[in-house]
Specification:
single chain; BirA Bifunctional Protein, domain 2; YbaK protein; Rossmann fold; nine-stranded mixed beta sheet; five-stranded mixed beta sheet; binds zinc ion
Length: 577
């Protein structure tokens, strides 16, 4: 590629709306442009990176035995109605009405479409196991698109779906994908770890997210440095460190206390001059339209994902002040387990089991009760782990102390179970001639987010530092003076030869100062610059400069091509899976 005839578009200034490094650099290096909030298109330099990532993913999917297909992006609403997700998906799913008044969906995910392919084409156990995949656009009408391509409304995903005859088969298909993911992320230069993830309430049995640790990550990961337990906080389990609330106190007498204008646990702690662990928080939720009271110790937080899964609810939200008043008989802030006005389902987190003489809301405005004791004053029929694990808790596997970190989710693998094959009635004949539902797994990688995650973890003040495997070009030749015939002759010769030997090379022959061009190449993250200057004429030497650590090699012109090829080859070894 000759840059003089190419489209290079770089910016010196950070875009105003960019909060994270990858967003800034993707815009400044001319990888992407912003069409509209949450909508990014790729410019030539970015599209080269994109294609390299896609190729690596495709190679590894094929190696793992997955088969590529290309379903439609527009899917009929009927498929979603069949699976039961048409209403559940909410406003994130973009719906379109065609000229015949039929509703179509711009696929946010493709479980339905792939299940439909299998329903159309597979009828016997002999055709299984089968893992199908696509690398294609997805659409989600994010309420708050942000961080550039990291959370946007149109994006590319590789999504794969496995179909097996039984759970043992699913385990094998899942593990093959897991292996493939480890290879893919290694090859694109990402340190992505599989982390235990939420399995949802729809019959999934195992789920892992591939996380890249980064301060800009939107996911919180709980991990144990002692036994290497890693889990998304939505899923993480832990043991509470402090059981100091289990005291041998004698039960006191129930007593109402006036607490006007004392609402938060912090205020209450001051008012009663005691520890937040003495409080039982009572929170009223609406689960699929029905009120539920949830009890947890005052210093802890409810994990709404765990709660939603426990309840098997499709929708879970905090109750409105009107409903709270209806249920408790008091204004917001005074709910408690004793004497709720309305009889509703009560779920207790394990953390409240042993609190003696607790303080709770009185279900009367401006009043709390002290010396509340479980079993004596109120009953909890259902206990569950609905607490958010946090740093400092004890690891349930090894007793170590848990830590918290942030991560960018770049991939997700999921044992789905029978949800789609049952709801969409997909069956195959088994060995004995019985009709059975295949069991499914699904496996996604966000292509754009993978690119952004690489930039987040590999950059410096000059710009991006690409791993050679996904760099827009492996190397770029920089003729110091583009008007100097001799320099251009040597540059062109090296360029043509490298091209003929399949090196992904470009020549930056733009009519710009050498400083501008070098800065652009650094910003774009080109791994190797091949500098052809006066030394090429006077001393017969060129210079190869590494982007990552600035190291330079002087090479005789006559050996340049072979030497560059060998340097590049060596570089690839770092990313071998
Ligand atoms: Zn541990």
């Amino acid at each position: 590629m000759r840059f003089s005839k190419y489209l290079i578009f770089t910016l010196r200034e950070d875009p105003k709306d960019a909060e994270v490094i990858s967003h800034k650099l993707m815009i400044r290096a001319g990888l992407v442009y912003k069409e509209e909030s949450g909508l990014y298109g790729y410019l030539p330099i970015g599209f080269r990176v994109y294609n390299k990532v896609v190729n690596i993913i495709r190679e590894e999917m094929n190696r793992a035995g997955a088969i590529e297909v290309l379903p439609t992006i527009l899917t009929p609403a009927s498929l979603w109605i069949e699976s039961g997700r048409y209403d559940i998906m909410g406003k994130e799913m973009i719906r379109i009405k065609d000229r015949k008044d039929n509703w179509l969906v711009l696929g946010p995910t493709h479980e339905e479409a792939f299940t439909d392919i299998v329903r159309r084409t597979v009828s016997s156990y002999k055709q299984l196991p089968l893992t199908l995949y696509q690398i294609a656009k997805k659409f989600r009408d994010e309420i708050r698109p942000r961080f550039g391509v990291m959370r946007c409304r149109e994006f590319t995903m590789k999504d794969a779906y496995s179909f097996d005859i039984d759970e043992k088969g699913l385990d094998e298909s899942y593990n093959k994908m897991r292996e493939a993911y480890i290879r893919i992320f290694k090859r694109v230069g990402l340190n992505a770890l599989p982390v235990e993830a939420d399995v949802g309430s729809m019959g999934g049995t195992r789920s892992e997210e591939f996380m890249v640790f980064s301060s800009v990550g939107e996911a919180t990961i709980i991990h144990c440095p002692t036994c290497n337990y890693y889990a998304n906080v939505e899923r993480a389990e832990s043991i509470l460190k402090d059981d100091d609330v289990v005291e041998n106190e004698t039960m006191g007498e129930l007593k109402e206390v006036d607490t006007p204008n004392v609402f938060t646990i912090e205020d209450l702690t001051k008012f009663f001059n005691t520890s937040p662990k003495k409080f039982i928080k009572t929170i009223i939720y609406m689960a699929d339209g029905k009120p539920v009271a949830v009890l947890i110790r005052g210093d802890l937080d409810i994990n709404e994902v765990k709660l939603k899964n426990y309840l098997g609810a499709a929708e879970l939200e905090l109750a409105t002040p009107e409903i709270i008043e209806e249920v408790t008989g008091a204004k917001v802030g005074f709910a408690g387990p004793v004497g709720l006005k309305k009889e509703i389902r009560v779920i207790g987190d394990f953390s409240i089991k042993n609190i003696k003489n607790a303080i709770t809301g009185a279900n009367k405005t401006d009043k709390h009760i002290i010396n509340v004791n479980i079993n004596r004053d109120f009953e909890v029929k259902e206990f569950a782990d609905i607490r958010t694990a946090k740093a400092g808790d004890i690891c349930k596997n090894c007793g170590g102390s848990l830590e918290e970190t942030k991560g960018i989710e770049v991939g997700h693998i999921f044992k789905l179970g029978y949800k789609y094959t049952e709801s969409m009635n997909v069956t195959v004949l088994d060995k004995s001639g019985n009709r059975i539902h295949p069991i499914m797994g699904c496996y996604g990688i966000g292509v754009d987010r993978t690119i952004a995650a690489v930039i987040e973890t590999s950059n410096d003040e000059k710009g991006i530092i690409w791993p050679i495997t996904i760099a827009p070009f492996e190397c770029v030749i920089v003729p110091i003076a583009t008007k100097d015939e001799k320099i251009m002759e040597i540059s062109n010769k090296i360029y043509e030869e490298l091209l003929s030997k399949n090196v992904d090379v470009a020549i930056d022959d733009r009519d710009e100062t050498v400083g501008v061009r070098m800065n652009d190449l650094d910003l774009m993250g080109i791994p190797f610059k091949i500098i052809v200057g006066k030394k090429a004429i006077n001393e017969n030497k060129i210079e190869v400069k590494r982007r990552d650590n600035g190291q330079t090699y002087e090479i005789p012109v006559s050996e340049a091509v072979d030497e560059i090829i060998s340097i590049i080859k060596e570089e690839y070894k770092k990313y071998e899976a």
